Structure formats: structure tokens, C-alpha cells
Amino acid sequence: MKFKINIVYKLIGYLVIVSLLPLFIFAAISYDVVRDTIFDLTSKSSVQQINNQREYLQQQVVQQIDNLAGRIAGNESINAILAKAIDPADSGSGTYDELASQEEIRISLTLYSNLKGIVSIDLITPNGHRYYVGDTLSISPVSEKTRNAILQAALADPNAVHWLGIVDNLNTESPTKKVLSAVKVFSRYIAAKQSTITTGMLIVNYSPDTLYEHFSQVDLGQNSSFQILDADGRMIYTVDKSRIGQMASQELLQHLQSNIGSGLMEFNGLESLVSKVKLEKESWSVIGIVPKETLLEPVHRLAQILMMLIVFSFIVIALASQFFRRTMVVPVQAISNGFQRLYDKNILSVQHLPVPKTNDEIGELVVWFNTFLDMNTMRLRYEQDLIESQYKFSSIFNQAPMPLALVRIETGEFVDVNDFWLEQFGFRREEVIGKTSIELNMWLDPDDRKTVINLINRTQVVNRFEIKQKTCDGRILICQISGRPLRFQDQTHFIFAPVDITRQRRAEIELNEMNQSLESRVLSRTEQLQKSNRELNQAMETLSLAQGELVRSEKLAALGSLVAGVAHEINTPVGIIVTSASVLNDATIAIDKSLGDGVIRKSQVLDYIKVALESSRLIIANADRAAHLIQSFKQVAVDQTSEQRRVFDLKEFLNELITSLNPSLKKSKIKIEVKQTDRIIQLDSYPGLLAQVLTNLTMNSLTHAFVGKSQGNIFIEIKLVNDMVTIDFNDDGSGIPEDILGKIFDPFFTTRRGQGGTGLGLNIVFNIINKQFGGTISAENKPQGGALFRINIPRITRELTEKEYINGNLTS
């Protein structure tokens, strides 16, 4: 209760300080300042109104009539009729030509239908032919003297359209006696005479009544005057409609001739602000005359308002206490009851409180209460989104076409394995989950396990490390293992992809043995050439099979590294989502406890809203990021494992492929940039084959081009020439030694023998480009350093059989 009394007293003191005291000080020392300020502001406003009316007259009347005249003057049909009318050899100009001209003028007028003030349009030739469209069917004749006077005045004017100002209507039959007339001269070049002749003049008559309707609404203040004069001083507009067309007062004309600008001056016995402006091309004047007393009228009203405000302030202070109690205490009690009900009930059953119409802290507190309910609803929704994200990850993990295992790094226990892993090693899932690889007796050499653990502790990454492991039935597999860390459920896990390369290694051993055997036979048994050739053919068939197995194993190993890298990429946003949801949950529990204890404070609510907003932003942003990574991996994985031919955008495909390669690129700090110099390039081809080509080229650059370099760049430039797509794959690395440049596409040629290199990467690229795509590939060193691989393939690839798609790149 004491708190409420203090608030009341503070409110009363505040009202006294901010209302009565400033009003007295303001009334005592600021009268002259306010008067000068108001006079200056009202003067500027008056001048601005004059300028606005000048702009209206210029743009809505003068300029639109100029445009209308130009439109009619540019009409070839009208010009042809006028030329025919002045041709003495042609006596056929008559009623038909006059009707045709009138129809052309009506067509032109439809483009300016909003210019409603047009009275009539006259087309008059020098020899007296006249074509009229206007407000009457009958027209009065125009004397030759009058026609010549108007024509000479228009020819003397440098402007395209000559304005006569406000004059008597040439057509005395018209009910509009005074009109604003504009004249446009028609001319035609006669090639035979090599001269230009005047073929006629266009007279557009505009009603001053339309201007009166607009300008009569201009209010410059009490006893003010607003006038528009033409170049001869005749009044185009004045408040007294009967004086339109008459000469302005002598005093006003003398002021215009004096060339004195706008300002205060004596006018009609009163000190007045005279503002005048002229139109840009026509010498028309727009004049406003406002008495100084009219401009200062707001100062007198201000003094009255001040006195009323002082009286009103006393009334407000007298009623403030009662009003404060009614508008503050009662709403606060309602909010307190709402929080009590919120504590006693399930949060999903609590409805929003109605927001008070008053825009104050009470209304804000109600809004915060409703926001609290919304934040909890959002938290539940984001938790559901998190569950869906985990389900997507689980789907990718279980359906990946390679062996994957999720291991708890602290204990080495298997958290989960996919079906491919179970099929490869021959275990049942219940035999694996919760056990370690040591308990399952999977390591042939325990030192291999120590090496892998050392790699994890040192680099947090395992890339294609070769180990030997035992299956459930005791078979020994040579595996190429890749792994990435993954934060899941507040624990550090590691996802491994042990790809079986036993057949690949056996094939390499058999291949080496065959090569040695063949060399021995060639040296020692040259006489048995025919027999050796047969054996060599058999060896080549075996080599092709072995090479096919190597290619498939190479694909699975690359895809395993890709899956591990994407899992590592997804780990970061998923970890942030879990952390943010946990922080939001803790904050909700804390404020819920404060609500239950009845000690909630505004600062606590503000802190909670800040935490809730930030957590929500982090959850949404990272959920979107994880979804994007999953979508990119999904498309690349489908392309690399599918035989499907489809139409795709080449640049978009390259960006998705680069996204899937980002884990390998981030580790080596290598950047890939795609440049497209032409329009969008649509390929009708096999994205899986193209992905294998570009992935092999990228891995080749990472392995050979940037040895000893901490960072580098790879550039992929694409363009389309005559339905052939050119892909320039180049880097700024160390280049290719000249002595091996001609051998890099040979099968099994590698400079990293014994270090994980098989010598098949570029050979596969060469065969895919030549056999499947029917294109060409070449390699060279760039003058500025680095290697350049240039690929040329058709935009539309021929249809491949299943055998060609899978095994075509194995044939020589």
C-alpha cells in the first residue's frame, strides 16, 4: 500500500513540474520568439503554397496542353489533310477531310481525357480552311487579319507552343466567352522546292472555369488575395469570377513592373506579405498577398491556448490521484491473478489476457505475459522441429550406402550402426550396441586402434586411414576408415565409415604379381609369343575386373568421407539448437519459480524475453542451416549413386557439389569459386558421372597441388559455345611436373604410391569424359602457376545403357 501512495505523489509532482512551471516560464520569456518563429513558418508556408499552385498550373495545364498539341502535330494523317487543304491544285478538300481531321483530334484527346477543361480545338490553314472540334456544332468565322495576327505571334515565339493568355473566344457561338488559348504552328518540308512551308496552326482553347474550380480552394488566410496574371496583365484567376479576363489593379501591375521580389510591403493600406513566382516559359505570374496580421493570428490563439492549458492542468492534477488508482492498481491486480492462475494450471490451457487500450507499462506488462505464453509455445514447436531434424539425421545414417558406426568417444562403446555395417561385419545389432570394438575382437592389430585414437586426439579428424579388422566369422577385412566428431545429447560421439577395400588391395597385389610374371616371361620366353599373348589377354580381363572393383571401392570410400564430413557439418547447428533449447528451458523454469514465489520483477521478465528471443533466433537459424546441409547432401548423394539422366542447371549443380565437399576444403583451407561467363547453362546429362569427374579433380588438387601450402584457391569456369560446354578446372597450386604431364591419365600412375594413392582417379576422369560423355579433356600448366584441366562435353549427352553407365569407364 505504501508503494501505491509513493507512486501517486510522484505523479502529482511530475505533473506540476512538466505542466504548470513550463507554461509560466514559456508565457513569460518566449512570446517574442514564438511570434517571430510563427511568422517565419507561416510566411514559408504561404510562399510554398504559391509555388505549389505554380507547379500545378505548369504541369497540369500548360505542360499537358503542350503535349496534346505535340501529339496532334505529330499525326501524319492530320498533316496530310492540312497539306492537301493548302494545295491549290487539289480542290477535293471538303467535308470528308474535315470529318477525318476532327476524328483524329478526338483520338488524340482520348489520351488526355483527364484534362477536362478543353473547350475546343481549331485547325486553321493559311488559306482559311478550318477544322473544329469543340463544345458547339456551329462556329463563327475568323477574319484573315485575326488569323494572320495569331500566326505571326506564334511564329515569333521560340517556344514550340505559343500561349496567347486569356482572350476572347474566337468562336462567338460558344457559351465560354473567355478562354486560355495555346497556338501550335504546323509546317511541312517540300522536297521539290527544298523549303519548309506553313501548313496551318492548331489553337487549343482551355476554360478558365476549370482553373477557378481548383484555385478557389486555395486558402492563404483571412483577408488574403490570390491571383494569376498572363503576360499582358490580364487576370487568369481571381476570387471575383466576374473579373477574370480583365486587367489587374494598377498598384499590382506597378509592383510587377518594379521587379521587386517577394517580401513584406505596403499593399492596400496594410503591411502584407507579397509572394510572386513566374512560370518557366510563359510570362505568367502567380501572386499571393497575405496581411501580416493574418500570418500572426496563431500567436493570439497561442496565448488563449496557454491560459486554457493552465486551467486544465489544475483540473488534471486534482483528478490525477483517483485516475491513477483506477488505471494502475486494478490492472496490476488482474495481471497478478493471471500469473497465479498460470502457476496453478497447465500452460497450454492458459489463454491470452486482453491487452488494455492504454499505451503504458501496464499494457506492456500484459503484452509480456502474452509473449511469455507464446515463447513457451514456440519452445514446444522448436523441440518438435529438433526431433524431426534428429529423425532426418537418423534416416541418412541408416540408409547411407556404406558402413557407418556411431561411437561414444569417452568409452569407445557403439551407440548405433547401420545395416550396411552389420552386413559387412556379420554381427547382429544387439551384439554390437553398448559394446566396444575390443570386446567384439575386431582389431587384428591393436596398434591400429591406438593410432586412430591418437589421430582423433590430435586432429579430431580421421581421413581414409587403412586398417585391418575382423568380422564376426573371423574373416580379415582391409578397411579404409574415415571419421568426424559429432556432439549429440550433450556427449561427444564419433561417426566412422570403415569402407571395405580388401578386393582393391588384393587386386593391386595380383596386378603387381602379374606384371612381374609378364616381364619375366617376355625376357625368358620370347619364342612363346603367341602363348604369352593369350595369357596377357586373360590377365587384362582380370585387370579390368580388378579395376572395376577398385573404382567401386574408391566411390564408396569417397562417399564415406562425404557422409562423415556432412555429419560433422550438421553437428555444429544441431549442437547449437540443443544448447539454445536447454538455455531457454532453464530460463523458463527460473521465471516459473519466481512466479510461484510471487516475487516476479519487471527486470526478470525482460531478461527472460531477451533470453527467449535470442534462443529462438539461434534455434531457427541453425535448424535452417542443418536443413540446407541435409538437402545439399541428399541431392549430391542421389546424383552420385543414381543412374538417372536429368536436365539440370550446371552452376547450381556445382554449388551443391561444393557444399558436399566443404568438410575436406575447410580442413585444408582451400576455397572453390565457380565462374559463369554466359547465360544459364542447362545440361541434359548424367549428374552422377559429372560429380565423380569433378570430385576426383578436386581430390587430386587437394592431394598434389597444395603440398606445403596453408591455403589456396580452385577456380571452375564454365561457358557454352555452339552447344558444347567448356569446363576449365584450374588451381593456383604448384602445377604438374613437365616430365609426368603426359602420363597423368594413365591407369595406376601415381606419385603417392604407398601413401593412399591408387593411380585411378584421373584415369577414371579421362574415361568418363571420352567414353560416357563423348568429350575431351586436356591438362597443362598455367604461366602464372598452377594446373589447368580443360573439359569439353556436349550439352546433351547421348543415352547410355546401364552397362555403359556402370562399366564404360573401365574399358580402354
Please explain how this structure is put together:
This protein is of the alpha+beta class and 812 residues long. Helices cover 53% and strands 20% of the residues. It has 20 helices and 22 strands. The chain has a 5-stranded antiparallel sheet, sandwiched between helices. The chain has a 5-stranded antiparallel sheet with strand order 7-6-10-9-8. It has a 5-stranded antiparallel sheet with strand order 12-11-15-14-13, with helices on both faces. The longest helix is centred in the C-terminal third of the chain and has 69 residues, at 529-597. The chain starts with a helix and ends in a 5-residue tail after the last helix. Mean pLDDT is 77; it is low at 638-642 and 808-812.
Helix/strand layout:
Elements: H1 2-29, H2 31-73, H3 76-86, H4 95-110, E1 118-124, E2 130-134, H5 144-156, E3 162-168, E4 178-190, E5 195-206, H6 208-215, E6 225-229, E7 235-237, H7 250-257, E8 263-267, E9 270-278, E10 285-291, H8 292-295, H9 297-344, H10 361-399, E11 405-408, E12 414-417, H11 419-425, H12 429-432, H13 446-459, E13 462-470, E14 476-488, E15 491-500, H14 502-524, H15 529-597, H16 602-641, E16 646-649, H17 650-668, E17 670-676, E18 682-685, H18 687-705, E19 712-721, E20 724-731, H19 761-772, E21 776-781, E22 787-794, H20 802-807
Parallel strand pairs: 17-19
Antiparallel strand pairs: 1-2, 1-5, 3-4, 4-5, 6-7, 6-10, 8-9, 9-10, 11-12, 11-15, 13-14, 14-15, 16-18, 19-20, 20-22, 21-22
Helix pairs in contact: 1-9, 9-10, 10-15, 10-16, 14-15, 15-16, 15-17, 16-17, 16-18, 17-18, 18-19
